[in-house]
Automatic annotation (TrEMBL):
The keyword Transmembrane applies. The chain crosses the membrane at residues 12-34, 54-76, 83-102. It comes from the Bacteria. Keywords: Membrane, Transmembrane, Transmembrane helix. InterPro entries: DUF1499. It holds the Pfam family DUF1499. This is DUF1499 domain-containing protein.
Amino acid sequence: MTNSDQNGGWRGRFSAFALAFAVFGAVWFFIAAGGTKLGLWDWRTGFGTLAMGWGPKIVMAALAVSALAIIVSLVMAPRKRPFMLALGALLVSGLSMGRIYATGENAKRLPPLHDIQTDWANPIMPTPALVSARASTGAYNEIEAAPVIADGAKGNWPGMEGKLVSEVQEQAEFDPDRQKKEVSAPYPHIETAILPAVPFDMAYQAALETVNDRGWTIVTAEPEEGRIEATDTSFWFEFKDDVLIRVQPEGEGGSRVDVRSVSRVGLSDLGANAKRVKLFLEDFEARL
């Protein structure tokens, strides 16, 4: 038996190609994100075109090639090496497709929200400085007092368009009367931090320190007004979400803290803003 026969000949080479293609499909998403991170292209190209547009198609093609390699390796004098390579390709592309499917299903489970806050009855509004910062990056999500779900949501979330964001957030949050566990709800429950024993100045300083510890870029810090505005930038695609924090006196020597987190782009944040607000409040209260 020749060395070519032992390696499976052309079938071995085809299976090796299938494995390389499958690995390329998995790595493609890192290429899309890495190029954005390095400034080779903007997030619209990196996330919208390369990752979400081409990515699933490349993985689907790799999955089809892997399946074909499995079939080829088993017909006409099967060879172990081509089969193992093809099986590896199928596993890699299958895992990649599973990841894409899970992300899509999670997106469908979550409502089309990109604006979350603790007090919709008295919404936190942005300063001109934050409005300007958002405009400079091409943000198209406005920060409004009573925003509604955009018409663009009707494609993936039919019937949601036109609903008040405040109502959709309330319906999506964890409610012990409706769910046994918090993980069963699309969003965690967030609410104003009422601190009867923490004076205003101490609460503001703790909020500012928490913002700094989380690595957010401060846009506005006004101690007299109890206002902090900061921007959180994601690592790979550098999505920018803005956090608005309001500290107010409460009762005799106490304080209350409200938080709002708003994405600059996108219909759905996949729960990122709600998670950000919850974690901020947890870190903030742990600091007191």
